[in-house]
Amino acid sequence: xxxxxxxxxxxxxxxxxxxxxxxxxxxxxxxxxxxxxxxxxxxxxxxxxxxxxxxxxxxxxxxxxxxxxxxxxxxxxxxxxxxxxxxxxxxxxxxxxxxxxxxxxxxxxxxxxxxxxxxxxxxxxxxxxxxxxxxxxxxxxxxxxxxxxxxxxxxxxxxxxxxxxxxxxxxxxxxxxxxxxxxxxxxxxxxxxxxxxxxxxxxxxxxxxxxxxxxxxxxxxxxxxxxxxxxxxxxxxxxxxxxxxxxxxxxxxxxxxxxxxxxxxxxxxxxxxxxxxxxxxxxxxxxxxxxxxxxxxxxxxxxxxxxxxxxxxxxxxxxxxxxxxxxxxxxxxxxxxxxxxxxxxxxxxxxxxxxxxxxxxxxxxxxxxxxxxxxxxxxxxxxxxxxxxxxxxxxxxxxxxxxxxx
Amino acid sequence: xxxxxxxxxxxxxxxxxxxxxxxxxxxxxxxxxxxxxxxxxxxxxxxxxxxxxxxxxxxxxxxxxxxxxxxxxxxxxxxxxxxxxxxxxxxxxxxxxxxxxxxxxxxxxxxxxxxxxxxxxxxxxxxxxxxxxxxxxxxxxxxxxxxxxxxxxxxxxxxxxxxxxxxxxxxxxxxxxxxxxxxxxxxxxxxxxxxxxxxxxxxxxxxxxxxxxxxxxxxxxxxxxxxxxxxxxxxxxxxxxxxxxxxxxxxxxxxxxxxxxxxxxxxxxxxxxxxxxxxxxxxxxxxxxxxxxxxxxxxxxxxxxxxxxxxxxxxxxxxxxxxxxxxxxxxxxxxxxxxxxxxxxxxxxxxxxxxxxxxxxxxxxxxxxxxxxxxxxxxxxxxxxxxxxxxxxxxxxxxxxxxxxx
Lengths: 406, 406
Fold this sequence. Notes:
Two copies of one chain form a homodimer. By secondary structure, chain A is α+β, with helices and mostly antiparallel strands. Chain A has two domains: 2-279, L-amino peptidase D-ALA esterase/amidase (4-Layer Sandwich), CATH 3.60.70.12; 287-405, Ubiquitin-like (UB roll) (Roll), CATH 3.10.20.340. Helices cover 33% and strands 26% of the residues of chain A. Chain A has eleven helices and 16 strands. In chain A, the strands form three sheets. In chain A, strands 1, 4, 5, 8, 9, 10, 11 and 12 form an eight-stranded mixed sheet that branches. In chain A, strand 8 (158-165) and strand 9 (171-179) form a beta hairpin. The longest helix of chain A has 21 residues, at 259-279. Chains A and B meet through helix 8, helix 9, helix 10 and helix 11 of A and helix 8, helix 9, helix 10 and helix 11 of B.
């Protein structure tokens, strides 16, 4: 197997057309399979307060047999905390797409991102949809236009695609777009359940895989990518990741990809999109990667990694370029605040910081049993647990406050 | 019973002398009972990484039969993540006080606050101690000097005292000092266990109460006061609250106070000190109070209240004076992110915001069952649960970033 990053985003996948437009803060993206709907799975915010489009799309994937013919996503309004009117407008978005593209209404996924508590301007969406549908294209610019249309406080658009050369000689593509900058603390769960942020990601593949394979591949990929990004620790009401298999790869290739090969490609795309979100966190001047090892379990390692990358004190210190020895203390406090299994004290804890330009790498080892020496990165390490995880985030700058105070 | 706020802080309590000095960022406070040690209980950070003074004082209260003759507390260095050298220096602080005041070393409580990971300048502490011990006084200025000495990024010192006129005709005092401004997310637990921040509070009373009564009174008081303050959500390695009963009230008065009367006085002091900490949060320009009701349990109400007051998005919006309808959406998202019992959606949730000058009051009702009407604060409310809680915090300003970037 060989995985190669390729251009084209969504449109690197056979059978996918996309487009997007924007008027000021209000953007509209549309994604469509070439012909009939593809097998689809989704993961949604665990926030108990869920936006109308999240409820609609989660329901669609439950009862609809998991088929998605098109995805419509608007920016500039979350359509959340908007009551019965909001629910009707989310349904109206699906209806409009269905009649425009001639696909079943129950195969249209809807997503929204933007301020919570404002009513959607459905008239604007109707007007924008005409233009967007007309310009649907399978050229790379279609994916880029869609990625740009769903941006809110994002400063750049996010796309990633890979081409997988399978051992059996097939060639399969996985490609997607994403958005996310603030309210980033996703806890995405399969169909309905979550931790949280507004981040959206729409991923397509031309591999023809069963709903079951798509579901477990997505769950694992998201757990190690989007669910490990923290910008501010605020869980959104609108987070959504959709994975659609068009199954329209070149003839016969569907059988030629193993689950492991597909997973490798999907993991790559999800991690790259997740890191793009971290890099573009609201007000970010630095990218932060936290690697944790020596934890009793992967779950514990994840909790610790997220706690470090979430800490306002660690984030402010990184923004200010504080001396590494003083940042280490704040990292240690964040690690210690986690309710993870097993006891550890400062003797067991090793924290190392490295910076390469605007990228900061923090390594935390909960199993280093050599006191001050180990803490300074010397000494022999006695690993206590095999749990490892990596989280991504950014620093906390004046601009984060400015963006969210406005 | 009548509770009256009185001046004097710690020194409003019979038998308590205090003093403090400061050289730049390095302060030293000393508190002593008039004669022999008093019955003492303490609560400590739940952070797994505990500063050397926290470990020392927690151990003292476990094995020492719960007596404290003096408290020494320094600012400017947390003495945490400092290895064996840090442990020796914390012990040395206790030794120095013991020999200076002629009290048993195992009755000296030690506390520290300041940056993590720096070694303590024990020479400076030794020099400062001479001056501080010499100036110990039972006059109000002693309490103020001690409260000022433990300040770090605090912009004002924190003291509170009450006089309780008991139904049986006694008169008992409860008085204390506190510090706290950043790294404020305390989860204080009895002797050893915690959530987190550097906040310190030292409270004395001349009521002569058993260790058992002191312990359960403190636990309940802290749960509803210090543990409900959030500045940044970073749990400190150094949080500590000590309650010492000197038992040196006027003759016979010890028996004249009921547990309920004492609790009322202690609760008042703890809540006032906690609110002072919230008001003085790093960079704060506004004070925020969040009241939650309608939750399934008090624990759930606490979790929701803390989540709202912790949210960077809610805090930035308050700093910027964002329109209440837009802040409400962010509050709703923070509420929904909590893993509390029972399901609720936007129909059940009522969020109201009021501002009075620089004080913001947020009311959240999880049991309001009247849809949009209830959300707007009209409509009839059908309460689902009886769980209620209040949390305190502040806004997130540019100054928070500036203070912690430096």
